[in-house]
Every structure is written in C-alpha cells, then in structure tokens.
Amino acid sequence: MMLSKLQQKYPESKLYKVPPSELIPDHLLLANETNEEFLSIPKQNLSHGEIELLLTLFSEAVPSGNIQNKTEESKNWHEYLYAGDSPKFSVSPKDMYRIIQFSIEEKVETDLLTEALRSIFAEQAVIVFNSPASGAIVEKKTEWTLPEEELLSAAAVIEGDFYVSPRFFIGRFYSIDDSFLSFFEEERNLFTFAEKNISKGRVFTFPSTFPPFALHYVPKQTKTRMFADIKGVFAEDEELKKTIKTYLENQSNTSQTAKALFMHRNSVQYRIDKFIEKIGIDIKTFQGALTVYLACLETEVDDNNMGD
To answer: What InterPro entries does the annotation carry (predicted)?
Structure first.
C-alpha cells in the first residue's frame, strides 16, 4: 500500500517527501520501503490494533533533525523546500529565485563544505543541507548570478581540495508562488536522473539534462530500430563518432570543433561530409542535428551499460 493512499484513509495525516525535522507529539511517523515518502498520523485517530498493523506494513521513521542547518534562514528554507511547509520568510512578488542542488558521494565535514560553498556564491545566497552531503543553494536573481562556467571551475577546486566528487544542478529562476515547489520537485527528478544515468559532468542544467531524460522514456525497441544505421557507422569508426558529437556540442561550428579536437578544420569538414553522405541526415540543419545528437546520447548509454 502506498502512503499516499493510506493518507486518504486518515485525512488528518500529513505526507512528507523527507521526514519532519522534529518529532511531532502524539503522532505515528511511517516511512515507505524506499524512504522516499513519510506519513505522520495523529495517534488519537488510531486504535492499538491499527498501530500494530501499520508497523508490520511500514517502518517507523525517525525525524531528520535538520541538524546540518545552523541558521534560522536555512532551517526555514529546508522546511519549505523539503517538507512542503508554508514559507516562513518574506519575499517580494517581483523577486525570483533559483535552486542549485548539490551532492557529494564522499563524507565531508559540514562546516568545511559550507565554507567552500560560501566562497563560491554571493553572501545573500542561502545554503540548505538536506543531508550531510547534499542539499541546495538558494540564489536570488540579481545583476550578478553565478555563471555555469564559474561553478564548473569551483567544482574542480572543491574536488582538488577535499578529494571528493561534487555534482551540481543549476535550476531556473522562478517567483516564490504556489508553483515554485512543483518546479523544484521536477528539477530534483532531473538531478536524480543525471546522477544515475549521466556518467560525465560535474554541473547539470535543464537544457543539458532534459534531452537524455526525454530519450530515456522512448521505448527501447523504437530507439534500437531508428538509430540502427547511425550506431552502425559509429561502431565502425570511433573517431567519427567523437567528431560528430563534438561538432554538435559546439553549435555545429566547424572551427570550434577543430580547436576542441586539435584537428585541421578541413579534416573536420571531411568527416562531417562523410557522415552526411553515409547516413543521409544533414546535421547542418537543426532537425538533423537534434536527431543525430539523440543517437549519440543513446550510443553512450549502450556503451555505459556494456561497461557495467
């Protein structure tokens, strides 16, 4: 039984995506088997037999404690973002905010990680931990917001200083309204997908993550059939595959591609013309480029699965 369905039976219960930060008096806190949903039910609505039955079906959860967040501001943002509580902070309807999610596989002291993140972002940014090694940076839109390139450089510095592998997802700017948490939930899904399915990269964005995310949900049989000839050409010539993907990721600019691959421009152009002739798809057009780029992404998925 899903906790969301159980909530319908107990209308006074409350569903959480993360456990509440503090124990709620006289409530039974349950977790599903994946610890992705938590339901708090007033014990006054439960008989002794119902409590025993529910504890055989679900695990009893422990409050998160929200102990990593030291300031009142970060605690309030945590309750808003991860527990779905109403905002306890004041914002102007004209202001826009984005959430930059972060996660680190290895263990790092929270104070050291906070100091490292604080050195990257503007002073008014709020650092919110959801666990000792993951959370979000709340950034208000101003004349200066951290560019993706600078965050990528900063991630490399953190990796070098702490011997860890940080990953970030840069969200889009939204107003704090009734839709904000829905957008954040979708961006959390994209970041989770990127961490599991995109092996390369420290910094992800909506544009960089959505194409492989959408492709993931195309039936495997369809992808196998429609990309068969492209995959065949790539299998025969690994260098051609690298050239085409680099070309597409450099805005179909031959000179930039040649620079990235340390090749002569004419050699790059020769490989592009060779590919177009073999496949019959003109990657100099937007539609052709998009189609072949998706094929490149699917080929990478296949290569990663073979490696596993």
So the answer is: CdaR-like_regulators, Homeodomain-like_sf, PucR_C-HTH_dom, PucR_C-HTH_sf
Q: Which residues contact 230 (CB under 8 A, 6 or more apart)?
A: 279, 281, 292, 295, 299
For residue 252, tell me if it sits in a domain.
Answer: yes
The upper half-sphere exposure of residue 173, i.e. CA atoms within 13 Å in the direction of its Cβ, equals 11
* Sign (positive or negative) of CA dihedral 214, 219, 220, 221: negative
Specify the pTM. 0.75
Longest CA–CA span in the chain (Å) reads 79
pLDDT tens-place string over residues 201-253: 899 999 999 999 999 999 999 999 999 999 999 999 999 999 999 999 999 99
Cα(102)–Cα(270) distance, integer angstroms = 41
Task: Say yes or no: 114 and 159 in one domain.
Answer: yes
Provide the domain limits for residue 236.
218-307
How many distinct structural domains can be found in the chain?
A: 3
Q: 231 with 295: CB under 8 angstroms? A: yes
Which tokens belong to 136?
Answer: 């979000």
